[in-house]
Design brief:
By secondary structure, this protein is of the alpha+beta class. 33% of the residues lie in helices and 25% in strands. The chain has 20 helices and 24 strands. Strands 3-2-4-1-10-9-11 form a 7-stranded antiparallel beta sheet. Strands 5-6-7-8-12-13 form a 6-stranded antiparallel beta sheet, covered by helices on one side. Helix 5 packs across helix 6. Bound molecules: iron/sulfur cluster (SF4). The site of iron/sulfur cluster has 11 residues, from helix 9 and helix 19.
Length: 474
């Protein structure tokens, strides 16, 4: 994505995948990672095992580029267990050293780990480990966990992993591969999704999203629960609770990150997004001729709003899907109009119309302002902007890149000031309560816990010194 647009959007965190006891483990992991590519495009890795040793490959870039056929041949050879990772750098940085899974080889054997999330006490743990002599190879928070596992004096792999993850705080969905077993671990809050499935021939599969289970032909069994470790081995599957569950699923997973065909905690992402549109209409109706969704995640919200309001929904904005990270840097003038390179307007749908434009969120507001200008330039009579996310007022510490507080439009401006800045006729956001309801509605009558910290500033976890300092700095 063009840098200018990228810095004004929420950015995906990571995706993990694992498979146990399947002669096609490497190939299915490749396909699984492809299905999770939307969660991270900076690097990818696959580690495989034949039950005695582990080996693998990691590279910067997209899955299809990272694993040419000659590499896949090496990964397929005799392997039957695998884990994989796609990375977006929310912690650490975009260097090869930070590409996962990390593979560790010690006197006690091999293990590999892949992480989706962000640890909030990684700095403290890292300092304490360094004081005890640990040498770090990367700047990634995940490496802290590898050292904690290696430092553990417990006897079994399961006990070592349990001891390690009991010390870390924050968001983590780990897949861990040892010579003998595959593990899934989710933090006590369950911030990031992790699902368990099974193929027709009985192989267990783990994936950040159910869309990756579908791609490899695995049937969904259940989600890994907050505070749970699942061990998959030749003895079958076993579950252990290492922490008391305090559910706080990231609500942005439903709105923005996950694929619409994924199901998280029994809630369809597709339906949740459409319900957000219905609720957004209830919260802020307005007379208009047409509703336009900003592709991709705004489109389903627009559909929900159209169903509720009866106003026609049109594809008035078309995304140029070939603008990627390798795009030649444009001139300054084009850079200022970067949104034109990414989105095109279907003029006749807009001209002389009162338009409601629906986006998933407003982060810094610069892109939203440019989209409004595109619509006005195309002849829109009125532009009413609707955000499917409530106003983002606080940074995320759990694996999502939301910009610093001072960059967030809603953190420093009133609704009227934002409306003026964006040059719209009206501006409205979904309320936090409506967002929670939109996600929870079909959850068998139970209101499960959701994290809404970036909208409220109330963080579900303990806050550590560096987080507090970051907030103050902002
Ligand atoms: S702070 Fe926001 S983006 Fe981060 S986990 Fe919570 S809801 Fe998700």
């Amino acid at each position: 994505m063009l840098k200018e647009l990228e810095s004004d959007s929420l950015r995906e965190e990571c995706g993990v995948f694992g498979i146990y006891n399947n002669t096609d483990a490497a190939t299915l992991t490749y396909f699984g990672l492809n299905a999770l590519q939307h969660r991270g495009q900076e690097g990818a890795g696959i580690i495989v095992s034949d039950g005695k040793k582990l080996w693998g490959h990691r590279a910067l870039g997209l899955v299809a580029d990272a694993f040419p056929e000659r590499i896949m041949e090496q990964l397929r050879f005799n392997s039957n267990n695998a884990i994989g990772h796609v990375r977006y750098s929310t912690s650490g940085g975009n260097s090869f050293a930070n590409v996962q899974p990390f593979l560790i080889h010690s006197n006690e054997g091999y293990f590999a780990i892949a992480h989706n999330g962000n640890l909030v006490n990684a700095q403290q743990l890292r300092l304490s480990l360094e004081n005890k002599g640990s040498i770090f190879q990367s700047t990634s928070d995940t490496e802290v966990v590898t050292h904690l596992i290696r430092h553990s004096k417990a006897e079994t792999d399961l006990e070592q992993i349990t001891e390690a993850v009991s010390q870390v705080v924050g968001a983590f969905s780990f897949v861990i591969l040892t010579e003998k077993a595959l593990y899934a671990v989710v933090d006590a809050y369950g911030f990031r999704p992790l699902s368990l499935g099974q193929t027709e021939n009985g192989s267990y599969v783990l994936a950040s999203e159910t869309c990756a289970l579908d791609v490899v032909g695995a049937n969904f069994i259940r989600d890994i629960k907050p505070g749970e470790i699942v061990e998959i081995s030749s003895n079958g599957i076993a579950s252990y609770q290492f922490a008391e569950p305090k559910p706080a699923k990231c609500s942005m997973e439903y709105l923005y990150f996950a694929q619409p065909n994924s199901i998280i905690d029994d809630v369809s992402v597709y339906n949740a997004r459409r319900r957000m549109g219905e609720k957004l209409w209830d919260d802020a109706p307005v007379d208009a001729d047409v509703i336009i969704g900003v592709p991709e995640s705004g489109s389903l919200v627009a559909m929900g709003m159209g169903r509720k309001s009866g106003i026609p929904v049109e594809r008035g904005l078309i995304k140029n899907r070939y603008i990627g990270r390798t795009f030649i840097q444009p001139t300054q003038e084009l850079r200022d109009n970067a949104v034109r390179l990414k989105l095109s307007v279907v003029k006749h749908l807009i001209q002389n119309k009162r338009v409601i434009v629906v986006d998933d969120s407003i982060v810094r507001g610069t892109t939203s302002k440019k989209i409004v200008k595109l619509l006005r330039d195309a002849g829109a009579k009125e532009v009413h902007f609707r955000s499917a996310a409530p106003p983002i007022i606080s940074p995320c510490f759990y694996g999502i890149n939301t910009s610093t507080k001072e960059e967030l439009l809603a953190a420093g401006k009133t609704l009227e000031e934002m409306r003026e800045y964006m040059n719209v006729d009206s501006l409205a956001f979904l309320s936090v309560e409506s967002m929670i309801e939109a996600v929870s509605r079909n959850y068998e009558g139970k209101l499960k816990g959701q994290c809404v910290a970036c909208f409220t500033g109330n963080y579900p976890t303990e806050l550590f010194d560096d987080m507090l300092a970051f907030q103050e700095k902002c």
